[in-house]
Each structure stands twice: as structure tokens, then as C-alpha cells.
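Most newcomers find our protein records easier to grasp once they have seen one. Sequence and backbone structure share a record, each on its own labelled line. To make this concrete, we reproduce a full record directly below:
***
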Amino acid sequence: MQLVVSVPFRRNCVPQAKQGWRRAGIVCLLGAMMLAAGCSGAAGNNYQSRPFFLPEKDVMTHGRKTWFDNLLETDPGHARYVVSSGYQTDPPHRIAVLPFCNRVSGNYILDGVPLTRRNKRTREEWAWTNANRLRREVTGSLAEREFAVIPIPTIDAVLAYRGVNNCRKLKAVSAEELGRWLDADTVVYGEVLDYNAFYYFLAAGWRIGAKIRVVSTRDGHNFFSASDTRYSVDLRPAFDPTDILLNSVTTTTALRDVELARAEWEVVREIMLRLPIATNNVSQLRESAVYRERAMDSDQSDASPLLKPPEQLNSSPPGFYQDDSYPPETIPLPTADPPPSH
């Protein structure tokens, strides 16, 4: 009797064994690569010894929209701005962001049609609220920069005490007088140009527009001026009747309040990214901080506890670096008729 070995057994078993070895090899290789990557990352990620105070990258471009971003997000907005020629040699230092004037009605407007019928008082409150939202965004953007920013409650208290309670009265006061009241070398005027929602079935969103002027209180010239209108758009193209119906419903989610807040932040961000870095201010702030620390170490009781003496900073406005130049945080509001504005 002749013993015959099955050929199919050899054909199936050997390749399966080879495939098993291949799989094991691939798994081992991937594991080794992951282990090597983890080791190299751990070796190069000694974060506790990383130095501070290095040059930052893309400071004035990070978050700033490009033409591709505008195209991708269906946003035709474009910021227009002008910077004074002497901005770097004589930049703003202490800034007061004044109340913004709102050109838009205090009603909820959709596609140019007011959907609410608010009374006059309620419309005024909403117009103030919408304007103050953009004003706070501007204040926050300036506060994280190389400027000293006066708190909004302080500004509002001073203006209320002086009887400046609307845009007409605010524009009647010169920038020089406002600087004296607020102890600021710079004031920021702002206007709300657009504050509307739109809904076109397959597209919906918000359109927010603003304009600001950064003005010197010493001679009234503009340091910087800019305007921008931004579109926060949710676009959902569709051709099938069912898809058109569904998309027409889902685009309404773009009218949420959180989307409005993002549009407010974006219009201010695009404007403030155009405001150049005041390199003189950065240098002065660093020098002043070092001077203060040296004065504390040497226990010089006659040295300013805040910043360098004004005689060492020739470009600073009078009184700006004095200890008593900062206005109190709270100013009592008048109980009777306020004095007439000058």
C-alpha cells in the first residue's frame, strides 16, 4: 500500500503559516514604531525645563482670516483700516473705550424685517446691550495687548456723572476733555453698523458690522481707524426635495445665540488684528518692570511702586506714570441733576 500525502494540505497550511508570520511581523513592527515614537517624544518633551519669554510666532496673523477662509465659510467680509504714520513713535498708552453708538434698531431683525414689537424703553435697552457686547470685545482685545485699559464701569460712572448719556452728547465733548475726565491719553469711539440675522432656507446666519476710531486726547488725531462687516453663514446646498426640506430646517440652528456671540467676537478680532504692535510700549513696560523690581530690592521708598518716573519716559503723557494718576474704581453717581457737560 502506498501512502499518499494530501497536496491540498500542503497548499493551505504553508501559506497560512506564512500569513501568520507576516501578521505577527507587522504587529511587532508597528509596536516598535509606536514605542520608539513614545520614547523620542518623552525624551524631547521635557516641558519643565523649557524656557519662557521666547519670540512668539504669527502674533498678528494667527486667527486672521485669509481669502481661502472667507471662501470656505461664505464670508465676503473685508476689514478696512488706516494707521497713522506716527503710530510707532508716539503710540497710545492709557486707553478708555467709550460707549458705542448703535445705528441699528433694538428689535430682533430677520432679513431686514423686525420680528419683535418692543416698546421704546426695551428697544433702547437692547440697542445698548448689543453695542456693549462689541465694546467689551474691543476692551478685552486691548487689555491683552501692550496698553493700560481703563475699566468700563469707571468710564461709565464718569460719563454718567458728567451727564453724557447718549451719542449726541458724547460727540459734543472733545477728545481732549474726555482725556482729562478719564485720565487717558487715548479714547476709542465705536459704532455698530449692522446687527441682523438672515434666513434663506438653505442658508442662514448673522451679519455683524462695526467701526472704531482710536483717537489721541492730546491733539485729537486718529491713531487708528477701521471698519468691518462679518457674515456667520451656515450654507447647506441641496437638490433633492427631501434634502431641501431637511436642510431648510437644520440651517435655523445658525441663528442660535452662541453663533451670534461668535460673530461678534470675529468682527472685533478681524479689526483688532490690524492694530499694530506698539513696540515702544513693549520696551517701556519691560524697562518699568525691571526698574520697579530693582527699586524694591534696594528698598528705595521714594521710587514709584508702579512704573518708571515720567522724566525717564519722554513720550509718555503728563501724569500718566504718576502714582495718583489712576482714577478711583468707583465714582458716586449723582443723586440730583448732573452738572452740564462742557
Q: What stands out?
A: The domain at 68-280 is CATH 3.40.50.10610 (Rossmann fold).
